[in-house]
């Protein structure tokens, strides 16, 4: 179940037609960091979450719950 939740951020990114490189260019978050977040290697963090929510135009709860494995 946790793996499904970890992929929510990736699904949102892909539904918007964005690659990690494109999202990196839009947000200033390095592509390697985005990859690590999507693969649960590092924490999302509040500041990165704010940037991603604004860029991906999604509700903050979506990213928070996806990180909790919901």
Summarize the structure.
With 70 residues, the protein is mainly alpha-helical. It has helices at residues 2-6, 8-15, 20-27, 31-38, 46-56, 60-68.
Fold topology:
Elements (H helix, E strand, L loop, with lengths): L1 H5 L1 H8 L4 H8 L3 H8 L7 H11 L3 H9 L2
Main features:
434 Repressor (Amino-terminal Domain); single chain; mainly alpha; globular; 70 residues; disordered N terminus; 6 helices
Structure description:
- The chain is an all-alpha fold and 70 residues long.
- The protein has a single domain, classed as lambda repressor-like DNA-binding domains (434 Repressor (Amino-terminal Domain)).
- The protein contains six helices and no strands.
- The N terminus is likely disordered.
Assigned CATH class: Mainly Alpha
Domain module count: 1
What is the tally of beta strands?
Answer: 0
Q: Label the CATH architecture.
A: Orthogonal Bundle
CATH fold assignment: 434 Repressor (Amino-terminal Domain)
Q: Biggest β-sheet: count, sense, barrel? A: none
Continuous helix count: 6
Radius of gyration: 11 Å
How much helicity do the residues have? over 70%
Instruction: Pick out the low-confidence regions.
Output: 1-5
